[in-house]
Description:
The protein has helices at about 1-35, 45-60, 70-80, 95-105, 120-130, 140-160, 195-205, 210-220, 230-245, and strands spanning about 40-45, 60-65, 85-90, 110-115, 135, 165-170, 175, 180-185, 185-190, 250-255, 260. It is an alpha/beta fold. It folds into two domains: about 35-160, Rossmann fold (3-Layer(aba) Sandwich); about 160-260, Orthogonal Bundle (Arc Repressor Mutant, subunit A). The strands form three sheets. The chain has a five-stranded parallel sheet, sandwiched between helices. The longest helix is centred in the N-terminal third of the chain and has 35 residues, at about 1-35. The radius of gyration is 24 Å and the shape is globular. The N and C termini lie far apart (about 75 Å). The relative contact order is 0.09.
Amino acid sequence: MVAIMLRLVNEIQRIMTLIGGWCKLSALINRGRKITMLKVLLIDDDKELSQLLSEYLHTEGFAIDTAFDGQTALELALKHSYSVIVLDVMLPVRNGFDVLKNLRQHNQTPVIMLTAKGDTVDRVIGLEIGADDYLSKPCDPRELVARIRAILRRANQKDTAPTNIERLSSGKLSLHLGTRTTTWDNQEVPLTGTEFSVLEILVRRAGQVISKDDMTEQALNRKLTPYDRSIDVHVSNIRKKITAAGSSKDLIINVRGAGYMLTMNDDDSANS
């Protein structure tokens, strides 16, 4: 009987030791998660919606800062480093367009615009100013998380770019995959992360027409929907920026009903 009791005590001690070990391991894991949580700045004057989205994003592993007016939002965006900014158009003090325009003068932090449902004009203006993507309000939190993760995957490609392919080029146009930067004739062209992804697709298949369906799936990680002009606006922005650096306006052409193509001169070559 004594022997049985001793074995029972030893077994209980062993189990307690295992539980203690799991608790320590769990604490370490949670501590690691806190360290590696990606920061998102959520900007919306609807406090109830902000709280709802913040709580959901937190459960998905993101650290959230919130702002309820444009001025506070801009100050936070310029003071701190964020992985993604979620920005509503209609804001007090400063509207979302003004915030984005000022932000783009300082950095290229990925931005997802929140627009009124069916408001195509706001979407186009946001993309033209430099937004990476947009969502209509009220938005599904799961869709917002999917869009954020898609943007982060594109942004993180600079950390996982193959070492044997450091640059893609076509004539004077060069894309540096490691840093995700673009140059025209050695002059840097300031592209957003999404614009870089769109241009990369065109350079990899220079001289070929690429449909907007394919470009939307590859660059935006979603299906092309009716009246979606995202790719059109991103290409327009790329054209403006590269033309300002000295390229021809016909470097990227629109093949009506088919898609877009990066043109190639006889001495141009695309490396992949």
